[in-house]
C-alpha cells in the first residue's frame, strides 16, 4: 500500500499510512523505508525524510541495499547533496547500487567531475558497473564536453556488451553530440540494430544544435517511414532546428501538426522555441503578440528570449517594454539588465544605461559568472570570466596578450559596448573582454594541443558576442577548427566563419559579401565620421533623402555596398588584400578598383586606389612598360559561342619547377584561360592528352583553334587527332599581336604575375599557377565589361580570405597558403626596408632566372644629370656596373622610400665570408645508395637560424675537429624537418613563451627542434 501511494499523485498519503503503522506497534521492513523515502523525494519533504533516516538508523537498516539508494535520492531531491554524500561515505563496503545512486545524484546536481571520480573509484573497487552506471557516466562526459573520456567509455561499453542496450546507445549519441563530435554520434546511430523514439529524438536534437536543421527535418521524415511515433521531445528538436535555420513557415507547420496530428499539448519549451523562431527572423511584433496570447501564463524565460531578439535586431523601445514584463515576474536576474544595457549603449542611450546599472545594484541582481571548460589529455580545465593576471599562469597570460595582438593585426576589434560600465575607458573595457572565459580556454587549447587539433570548449552561458567574433579570427589566423558549445547551440568556427552564420538569417551581414566580424568596428567608425553620421540620421528620418544610401542596424550601405569612413584604419589593409595578394595579382588601378567596388565604398575611393597602385613598389619593379604596337590591325572573325574557338600558346624559358618547364595557355571568346603545366620534352601526343584531360573534359571539343606555327602543332599526329573531332587548325603568325594578340597579352599578364610573386624564388613559379588562373579569370576585362568567371558561370567570382602576411601561422595551416604568404612576405619587404631588412635566402652564386627577373631595380638616388639623356645614380658600393644610365632605362620611383634599393646578386661584388659552425639544430640519418649517412642541421656563426644548412656529420667533424657535435645539439622536445621561421616568423626567441603549437613526436636519437 505504501509503495502504491508513493507512486501516486498524492505521495503524502504514504507518510500518513506509515504513522498508522507505528501506532499499531508494527515494525516496518526494508521495503517500507524504500517506499516512504521515495514519497519524501517526490514532494521534497526534507524534515520527514530526516526522521525516517533516524528511524532507519535506530533499526539498523540504514545501510540496507534498498534503503541506501532511496536515502541518497531523497537528500539529493531536497537539494542536500552534501548529506547524500555523507550517507554514501559512511557505508563500509558500498555495492554497485549505492555507487549508481550517488553518481546519479552528483550528475543531476551539475557535479559531473565528482560523478566521474566515483565512476573511476567503482572500477578500481572491482565491482562491475551496470547499464545505469554507463548511462550516468556518459551523461557526465556530455556535461563536461569530455570527448576523450567519452570515447574511452564507449570502448568499455563495447568490450563488456553494454551496447546491446538501446538506452546506452542513445546516451552515446547524446554524449558525442554534446562533446562536439556529430560524426561519431551519427555513426553510433546508424550502427544501432534497433532504435526507439528517444533515440530518434536525440539524433534530431543533435543535428539541430549543430546547426544542420535541414538534416534534422530529414531525420523526422525517416523516423515516420520506420513507423516510430514522435513525442514532445522530438518536436522540441524540430522546432529548435527551424528556429536556428530561419524556417519560420515550416516551424509553424510542425507546431500545429504536433497538436493536430499527434495530440501533443505544447509545453513552455515549445512556446519558447516559437518565440525564438519569430525573434530570430526579426518578426518582433509577432513574437510579442504570440506571448501575450498564450493559453498559459508566460514565464520569464519566454520574455528573456524576446529580449535577446530585441538586442540582436537593435530594437531599443521594444527591449524596454519586454524588460518591464520580465521585471513583473522576476527582477533578480542580472543578465536581463546587462542585455538591455548593452543594447542601449550600442545606440548611445547612456542615461538608460546608468539607470539600468542603478536598478541592478538596488535590486541586488548579480550576473552569473561565465565559465568555460576544455579537456586536454583527459583532464578538464575550467576557466571563469575575470581570471586575470593573478588567476592564470604567467605563460597563459602572456600568450593571451600575444594572441590579442595577432588578432588585431588581422582586423579584430574588441566590442567594448558589451561591457556594462559606461564610466569606464575603452582600454579598460578591452582588458575585461580579454579575460573572458572563452578566450582563456581557447588560448589554453592553443598552447596545449598539437597543431591541427580541433579545440573544443564548453560554456555555461551564451557565448559572448566579442568572444564569438574573436573565435572566428582565431580559427582564421591559426588554422584551427574551434567547436564552442554554449547553453543554446554549438558554434563551429573554421576559416574565419561560424556555422551559425550559415544556418540562420539573424545576422544583418548574412547576405553581404563583407565579413560581418567587423560589424562593431564599422558602427564605431560611422559614429565617429560626422559626414557619414549625418547621412545615417537623415536616412532614419527619411529613407529616400539620400539616393543610393540605405541604413540597416546603423550600418550604412551605398547601392548595396558597405560604406567605410575614408579615415578607416581598415582601408590600408583592404588595399593590400585586394592588390598585393595572389587574388589581387598586383592588378592595375581599374581591376583593383572593380574588385573593391563590388563590395565596398568610401568617399574618394578611386583616387585612394589609384595612388596606392601607382606607389606599389612591386608593380614598379616587375611590370613591363606598355606601348602601342605598330602595324595595321588584322582582326580575327567574330565569335559565336564560348569555348568553341580557342587560342593556344606556350610560355617557355622558365626555370624547372617540380619538373615543369613550360605553360600552355588556352583562352578566347570568354577570355577565360586555363594555365596548364608541361614538362620537357613534350610531344604532340602529350600535349593532346593534356588538352583532352583539362579542356575537352570541361568544355567539350572546340570548333577551331588558333595557334602559332610551332612544329608541335603542325605535326601529323596533332592534325589527325583534331581532324577526327571536326576541328580546324587555323594557323597564325607567331607573336603577331594583330592576329593572335589576345593570347600574347594573356602571356604577358601571366609572366607579370609570376614575376610579382616568384621573382625571388623562381623555382616556385609552378605553385602560383592555380592562383594566377583564378586571378586572371576573376579580374575585370574591359573588352567584355565583366570578369571571364562571370561570363562562363553566370555569377560573380567568390572572394577568397587569405592569411594576412603579418599573421604567424601554425603547422596546421595549409602548406600552399604558408608557402604563398612566405614568398609574399619577401616581396613586401622591399617596401618595408625602413622598418625591417629581410634576410637574403638566395645563394650568392645563383642567378635569378631571366624570364622571371624584375624589369627594374632600385630605387637609387640621382647624383647628376649628364647631358640631355643620361643620369648618374648612387649605386651600392659593391656594384659591378657603371652608374650612368640612358633615360630609356630609368623611370621615376613613386612613393616614400627611406632606404636605397639593392641590385641583384649577379650585379654585386660578393664578399668572401668565413663560415664556422655555431651549433647543431637537429640531426637525422638518410639512406644514400644503401648506406646510412648521418646529417646535422648546422647554424653558422653570425648567421640566423633560417640560414642553417644540412651537412654531412662526418665532414663537419673532419673539417672542424674542435667543434663538438654532441655538445652543440639544440635539445628541445618536438619539431619536424622544416624551415625554423615558418611558424614563428623571423624573430626566433626560444625563451619567450609563444602560443604557437609544438609537434609532439617520440624522441629520436639526436635532437629535435620545438617551435614553442
TrEMBL record:
The PPR repeat units are at 95-129, 196-230
Provide the species name. Answer: Trifolium pratense (Red clover)
- Protein name, UniProt field: Pentatricopeptide repeat-containing protein at2g02980-like protein
Q: Where is the Integrase catalytic domain?
A: 631-796
GO biological process, alphabetically ordered? DNA integration; RNA modification
User: Matching InterPro entries, A to Z?
Assistant: Chromo-like_dom_sf, DYW_dom, E_motif, Integrase_cat-core, Integrase_H2C2, PPR_At4g14850-like_plant, PPR_rpt, RNaseH-like_sf
Q: What are the UniProt keywords, alphabetically?
A: Repeat
What the record says about family reads: Belongs to the PPR family. PCMP-H subfamily.
Q: Which GO terms describe its molecular function?
A: RNA binding; zinc ion binding
Amino acid at each position: 500500500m505504501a509503495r502504491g501511494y508513493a507512486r501516486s499523485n498524492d505521495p503524502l498519503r504514504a507518510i500518513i499510512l506509515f504513522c498508522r503503522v507505528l501506532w499499531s506497534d508494527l515494525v516496518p521492513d526494508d521495503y517500507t523505508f524504500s517506499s516512504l523515502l521515495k514519497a519524501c523525494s517526490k514532494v521534497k519533504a526534507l524534515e520527514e525524510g530526516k526522521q525516517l533516516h533516524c528511524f532507519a538508523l535506530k533499526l539498523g537498516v540504514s545501510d540496507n541495499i534498498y534503503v541506501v539508494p532511496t536515502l541518497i535520492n531523497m537528500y539529493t531531491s531536497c537539494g542536500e547533496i552534501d548529506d547524500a554524500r555523507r550517507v554514501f561515505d559512511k557505508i563500509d563496503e558500498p555495492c554497485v547500487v549505492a555507487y549508481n545512486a550517488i553518481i546519479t545524484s552528483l550528475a543531476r546536481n551539475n557535479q559531473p567531475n565528482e560523478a566521474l571520480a566515483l565512476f573511476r573509484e567503482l572500477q578500481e573497487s572491482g565491482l562491475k558497473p551496470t547499464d545505469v552506471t554507463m548511462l550516468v557516466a556518459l551523461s557526465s562526459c556530455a556535461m563536461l564536453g569530455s570527448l576523450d573520456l567519452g570515447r574511452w567509455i564507449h570502448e568499455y561499453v563495447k568490450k563488456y556488451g553494454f551496447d546491446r542496450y538501446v538506452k546506452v546507445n542513445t546516451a552515446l549519441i547524446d554524449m558525442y553530440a554534446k562533446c562536439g563530435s556529430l560524426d561519431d554520434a551519427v555513426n553510433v546511430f546508424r550502427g544501432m540494430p534497433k532504435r526507439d523514439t528517444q533515440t530518434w529524438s536525440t539524433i534530431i536534437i543533435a543535428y539541430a544544435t549543430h546547426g544542420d536543421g535541414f538534416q534534422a527535418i530529414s531525420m523526422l521524415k525517416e523516423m515516420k517511414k520506420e513507423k516510430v511515433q514522435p513525442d514532445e521531445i522530438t518536436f522540441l528538436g524540430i522546432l529548435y532546428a527551424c528556429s536556428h535555420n530561419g524556417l519560420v513557415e515550416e516551424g509553424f507547420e510542425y507546431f500545429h501538426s504536433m497538436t493536430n496530428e499527434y495530440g501533443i499539448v505544447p509545453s513552455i519549451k515549445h512556446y519558447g522555441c516559437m518565440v525564438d523562431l519569430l525573434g530570430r527572423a526579426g518578426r518582433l511584433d509577432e513574437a510579442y503578440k504570440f506571448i501575450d496570447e498564450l493559453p498559459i501564463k508566460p514565464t520569464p524565460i519566454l520574455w528573456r528570449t524576446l529580449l535577446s531578439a530585441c538586442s540582436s535586431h537593435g530594437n531599443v523601445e521594444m527591449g524596454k517594454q519586454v524588460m518591464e514584463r520580465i521585471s513583473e515576474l522576476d527582477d533578480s536576474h542580472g543578465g536581463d539588465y546587462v542585455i538591455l544595457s548593452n543594447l542601449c549603449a550600442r545606440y548611445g542611450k547612456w542615461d538608460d544605461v546608468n539607470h539600468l546599472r542603478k536598478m541592478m545594484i538596488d535590486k541586488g541582481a548579480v550576473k552569473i559568472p561565465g565559465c568555460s571548460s576544455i579537456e586536454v589529455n583527459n583532464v578538464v580545465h575550467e576557466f571563469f570570466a575575470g581570471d586575470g593576471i593573478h588567476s592564470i599562469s604567467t605563460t597563459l597570460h602572456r600568450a593571451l596578450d600575444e594572441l590579442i595582438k595577432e588578432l588585431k593585426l588581422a582586423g579584430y576589434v574588441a566590442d567594448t559596448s558589451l561591457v556594462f560600465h559606461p564610466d569606464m575607458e575603452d582600454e579598460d573595457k578591452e582588458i575585461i573582454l580579454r579575460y573572458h572565459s572563452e578566450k582563456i580556454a581557447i588560448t589554453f587549447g592553443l598552447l596545449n594541443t598539437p597543431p591541427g587539433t580541433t579545440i573544443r570548449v564548453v560554456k555555461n552561458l551564451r557565448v559572448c558576442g566579442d568572444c564569438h567574433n574573436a573565435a572566428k579570427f582565431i580559427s582564421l589566423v591559426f588554422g584551427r577548427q574551434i567547436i564552442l558549445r554554449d547553453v543554446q547551440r554549438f558554434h563551429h568556427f573554421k576559416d574565419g566563419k561560424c556555422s551559425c552564420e550559415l544556418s540562420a538569417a539573424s545576422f544583418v551581414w548574412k547576405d553581404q559579401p563583407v565579413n560581418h566580424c567587423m560589424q562593431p568596428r564599422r558602427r564605431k567608425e560611422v559614429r565617429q565620421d560626422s559626414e557619414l553620421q549625418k547621412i545615417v540620421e537623415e536616412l532614419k528620418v527619411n529613407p529616400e533623402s539620400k539616393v543610393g544610401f540605405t541604413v540597416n542596424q546603423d550600418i550604412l550601405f551605398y547601392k548595396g555596398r558597405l560604406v567605410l569612413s575614408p579615415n578607416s584604419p581598415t582601408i590600408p589593409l583592404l588595399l593590400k588584400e585586394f592588390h598585393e595578394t595572389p587574388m589581387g595579382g598586383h592588378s592595375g588601378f581599374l581591376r583593383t578598383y572593380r574588385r573593391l567596388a563590388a563590395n565596398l565604398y568610401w568617399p574618394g575611393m578611386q583616387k585612394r586606389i589609384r595612388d596606392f597602385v601607382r606607389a606599389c613598389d612591386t608593380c614598379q619593379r616587375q611590370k613591363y612598360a606598355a606601348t602601342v604596337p605598330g602595324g595595321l590591325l588584322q582582326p580575327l572573325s567574330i565569335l559565336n559561342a564560348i569555348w568553341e574557338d580557342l587560342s593556344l600558346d606556350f610560355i617557355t624559358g622558365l626555370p624547372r619547377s617540380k619538373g615543369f618547364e613550360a605553360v600552355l595557355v588556352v583562352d578566347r571568346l570568354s577570355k577565360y584561360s586555363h594555365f596548364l603545366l608541361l614538362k620537357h620534352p613534350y610531344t604532340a601526343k602529350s600535349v593532346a592528352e593534356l588538352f583532352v584531360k583539362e579542356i575537352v573534359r570541361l568544355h567539350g571539343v572546340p570548333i577551331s583553334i588558333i595557334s602559332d606555327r610551332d612544329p608541335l602543332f603542325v605535326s601529323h599526329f596533332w592534325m589527325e587527332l583534331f581532324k577526327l573531332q571536326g576541328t580546324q587548325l587555323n594557323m597564325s603568325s607567331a607573336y603577331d599581336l594583330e592576329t593572335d594578340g589576345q593570347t600574347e597579352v594573356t602571356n604577358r599578364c601571366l609572366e607579370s604575375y609570376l614575376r610579382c610573386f616568384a621573382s625571388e624564388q623562381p623555382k616556385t613559379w609552378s605553385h602560383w599557377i592555380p592562383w594566377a588562373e583564378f586571378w586572371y579569370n576573376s579580374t575585370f576585362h574591359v573588352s567584355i565589361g565583366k570578369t571571364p568567371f562571370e561570363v562562363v558561370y553566370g555569377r560573380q567570382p567568390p572572394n577568397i580570405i587569405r592569411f594576412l602576411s603579418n599573421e604567424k601561422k601554425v603547422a596546421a595551416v595549409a602548406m600552399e597558403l604558408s608557402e604563398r604568404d612566405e614568398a609574399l612576405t619577401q616581396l613586401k619587404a622591399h617596401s618595408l626596408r625602413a622598418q625591417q631588412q629581410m634576410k637574403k635566402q638566395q645563394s650568392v652564386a645563383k642567378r635569378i632566372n631571366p624570364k622571371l627577373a624584375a624589369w627594374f631595380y632600385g630605387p637609387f638616388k640621382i647624383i647628376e644629370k649628364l647631358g640631355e639623356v643620361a643620369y648618374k645614380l648612387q649605386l651600392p658600393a659593391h656594384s659591378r656596373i657603371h652608374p650612368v644610365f640612358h633615360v630609356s632605362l630609368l623611370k621615376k620611383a613613386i612613393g616614400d622610400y627611406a632606404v636605397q634599393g639593392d641590385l641583384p646578386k649577379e650585379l654585386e661584388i660578393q664578399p668572401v665570408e668565413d663560415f664556422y659552425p655555431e651549433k647543431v639544430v637537429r640531426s637525422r640519418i638518410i639512406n644514400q645508395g644503401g648506406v646510412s649517412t648521418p646529417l646535422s642541421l648546422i647554424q653558422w656563426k653570425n648567421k640566423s637560424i633560417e640560414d642553417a644548412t644540412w651537412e654531412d656529420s662526418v665532414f663537419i667533424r673532419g673539417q672542424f675537429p674542435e667543434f663538438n657535435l654532441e655538445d652543440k645539439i639544440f635539445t628541445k622536445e618536438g619539431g619536424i624537418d622544416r624551415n625554423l621561421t615558418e611558424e614563428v616568423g623571423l624573430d626566433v626567441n626560444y625563451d619567450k613563451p609563444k602560443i604557437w603549437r609544438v609537434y609532439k613526436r617520440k624522441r629520436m636519437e639526436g635532437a629535435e627542434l620545438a617551435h614553442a
